[in-house]
Predict the structure.
Amino acid sequence: MVTHQLDRVQARRIAVRAQLLGDSRPTDLLTVVRQLTLVQIDPTAAVAPSADLVCWSRLGSSYQPSQLRQALEQDRTLFEHQAMLRPMDDLGLYLAAMAVWPSYERQREWLRANDAFRRDVLRLLGSSGPLLSRDIPDTCPVPWPSSGWTNNRNVTQMLEFLVLRGEVAVAGRQGRQRLWDVAERVYPAGTPVVPLEQAHRVRNERRLRALGIARAKAAAVPGEPAEVGDAGEQAVVEGVPGVWRVDPAALGQPFTGRTALLSPFDRLVHDRARLAELFEYEYVLEMYKPKASRRWGYFALPILHGDRLVGKVDATADRRRGSLVVHAIHEDVPFTPQLTRAVHDELRDLAAWLELSAEGLR
């Protein structure tokens, strides 16, 4: 078994290049999402919606949010699943899992008790969809039991379950609200179903290609896993305990970096353990903290420079004032004049893309 010997610089460059954050930018949206395998959707828009920030950081100001909507709602080259935008090319990797969902008895029992409700939802969507959840009557005889945000939200819960079963799909959005429809009007007919075990293996391989380097096993996180199983080849990183998996196609590739501002939900920074081990970078999303307890800001944007994460930007898009307000630039390392100019240039480019002026830059 080959074990590749890497230092942190090599490991970081593999990770940055895999996430399309090197100097050579991709030129189209579908290339970006195919390589990343997913773009996370999050409603927070202190600067811009996370999905748009992720695309802008790769494509630059040629990217427009309307491109994402068109790919999802008209071209059907992307689909939304579990708050992630994914390439429609990958749909077949999820269909086998949909066919056997759910695996937990509590969910199976609720669906059995509410089969008439399920059929009501499918019948209405089939005749009148796509619809917002508020346009679907709640005919549920057995409410969903929860003490959290799902308590008694029976329509939304049923729709979420039917998406996981492959019977319903997200057809698009009206503002931030999802539009639901029967899956056969959203997913391409005749999509080949990849068997479950093979699909799991291919998804691990695709995830490793998107990350470049990752742990075989990692802490569980909501949504997409951070681990890659036995995909790729074994590697060790100097100064970092344990064994990694690396995409062999990423080894020995040239690297030229650039400066980029990242969404807090960017895949380069989503795995905080990997972030600390490879980049020696501390980051916490502080939007859930009281204002007085925040160190970096409500929605601080990580700053990538070359193969290092060097700081955070606390900024807010103030549409009423027509400004991108830069409250603070936190330097994790002392900024050189060149680095300061590069960060300011990115902020001005971000402001121009948002059609705002840049406020707070010297």
